[in-house]
């Protein structure tokens, strides 16, 4: 996972080729960034369970 500045809209996340939305509300987003806004992080958390055979792509813009 590439390091990224939290809250700077610098990540693109895809599950099985479908773009995911970042946010804290599981009703409208698929993942959330972890860490304090403005600090570097290399973690995200998915709101739903991800099965092991799903293709996950994370890239920094």
Summarize the structure.
The protein is mainly beta and 61 residues long. The chain has one domain (4-60).
The largest β sheet comes out as: 3 strands, antiparallel
Uncertain regions: pLDDT < 50 for 5+ in a row? none
Q: What is the terminal-to-terminal distance?
A: 13 Å
Overall pLDDT metric: 95
Radius of gyration from the alpha-carbon trace, in angstroms: 11 Å
Percent in helix: under 10%
Strand content: 35-45%
Number of helices: 0
| Coarse morphology | globular
Overall structural class, as computed from helix and strand content, comes to mainly beta
Q: How many domain units?
A: 1
Strand order of the largest sheet: 3-2-7
Order of helices and strands: EEEEEEE
Number of strands: 7
Describe the structure.
This protein has one domain (4-60). It has no helices and seven strands. The chain has strands at residues 4-5, 11-15, 18-19, 31-33, 40-41, 44-46, 56-60. A three-stranded antiparallel sheet has the order 3-2-7, with no helix packed on it. A two-stranded antiparallel ribbon has the order 1-5. The protein starts with a strand and ends with a strand. The model has no long low-confidence stretch (mean pLDDT 95).
